[in-house]
Amino acid sequence: MCEMTESERREYESLREIPLESTLIRHGRILDMRLDMVRVPNGNVAGRELVRHLGAVCVVPLTDDGQVILERQYRYVIDSVITEIPAGKLDAADEEPLEAAKRELREETGFHAAEWISLGDFFPAAAYSDEHIRLFLARGLTPGERDLDADELINVFTLPLEDAVAAVMRGEYPDAKTQMGILKAAEYLRRENT
Amino acid sequence: MCEMTESERREYESLREIPLESTLIRHGRILDMRLDMVRVPNGNVAGRELVRHLGAVCVVPLTDDGQVILERQYRYVIDSVITEIPAGKLDAADEEPLEAAKRELREETGFHAAEWISLGDFFPAAAYSDEHIRLFLARGLTPGERDLDADELINVFTLPLEDAVAAVMRGEYPDAKTQMGILKAAEYLRRENT
Asked: Are residues A14 and A80 in the same domain?
């Protein structure tokens, strides 16, 4: 909130909720679950159920011949194996996102990248989670050794970026960051080439 | 998981985690927070922190002259006013997503739409939340009365879809479903017009 215009500042002051009390429901390994009581603009007190998360990064790795590198990974919470772009949590809240992105790409796929381009950031679930994800496009790829955690089971495959865009539009990739990463990378390349 | 191919079935069986025990940490108004113990494929037991959510819908409302209708809304968990497409939770797990989308569009913006097109679905945070969001494109808009909840404070504005795409690429809309909705709507229209 450090670059608000004067009208954004007024909007923020008129809409913001004041924290009154924050109760830690559970301190977890990847999530803290909290219940905050807040004063809303009309003066009432309301509860806000929320999740605190360290933050994460994700990467669209693009080969020189326009193939994107994707992963198949099991997700317990939806009991499904889904297709995702390489991604991972920050090791610490102050870890440099670009360093985390380089680490996750190398660990999960083995690839190093010569060129890293920011494709922005996003909050996947701003209604209840402060998870903040930074997205990168990685080009100039060199293969190497993967380095997975013992309980990380990830199958890697590649396909042309335009086929990945078509798969997103057909609804084949239910993971939000993956849909977004593929569409943003395609839009970035379109703008780069015009 | 009802339409798996034989190879997807084998992949699922080789990667899936078996729930052993599920503990309700907190039953909330919009979220249930749980801690599940699972058996992972190598036989070890691991904990899975997770959030159960009813599900949600979001809508890209597009006027006949190509303007998208957007909202400014305060989000406590990130203490910011952000730009979003109209969206909301399902009223019940079995609510028809299209009906929920029509309701949210009407309540938050006043608009009715003559044409509803599915732009697919996604899991915003498949690592820890089962929230499932359905995305729609709404066209043939007719203005009407808004119907906000007493504590819903939403400012509505419009801008050309191509300007919204540019704003997404400049990083101005940190909300994931909003970035995705705008990029998917633009890709849908590109495919419709070729």
From this structure: no
Please give the Cα distance from A136 to A134 (Å, whole number).
7
β-partners of residue B115 are B139
B37 and B62 fall within a common domain: no
Inter-chain touch A76–B122, beta carbons under 8 Å: no
Q: Please state, in angstroms and rounded to a whole number, the distance separating the CA atoms of residues B156 and A37.
A: 27
Write the CATH number for A82: 3.90.79.10
Claim to verify: residue B31 and residue B91 sit in the same structural domain: no
- Is A1 domain-assigned? no
Q: Are residue B128 and residue B139 in the same domain, yes or no?
A: yes
Q: Rounded to whole angstroms, how far apart are CA atoms A152 and B40?
A: 10
Pair (B26, B108) in one structural domain: no
Among A102, A129, A115, residue whose Cα is nearest residue A62: A115
How many CB pairs below 8 A link A and B?
221
ipTM: 0.94
Q: What is the pLDDT of residues A95-146, one digit of tens each?
A: 999 999 999 999 999 999 999 999 999 999 999 999 999 999 999 999 988 8
Within 8 A of B79 by CB-CB distance, chain A residues are 1, 16
Q: For chain B, what is the domain count? A: 2
Task: Tell me how close the Cα of A61 comes to any Cα of chain B, in angstroms.
Answer: 18
Q: B140-149: per-residue pLDDT in tens?
A: 999 988 887 7
Q: Which of residues 18-77 of A touch B (CB under 8 A)?
A: 19, 25-26, 28-31, 33, 35-36, 38, 40-42, 44, 46-51, 53, 72-77
Give B164's DSSP letter: H
pLDDT more than 70, % of chain A = 98
Domain shared by A41 and A72, yes or no: no
Contacts of A79 in chain B (CB under 8 A): 1, 16
Domain membership of residue B36 as a residue range:
6-53
Listing DSSP states for A159-170 in one string gives: EEHHHHHHHHHH
Q: Are residues A137 and A164 in the same domain?
A: yes
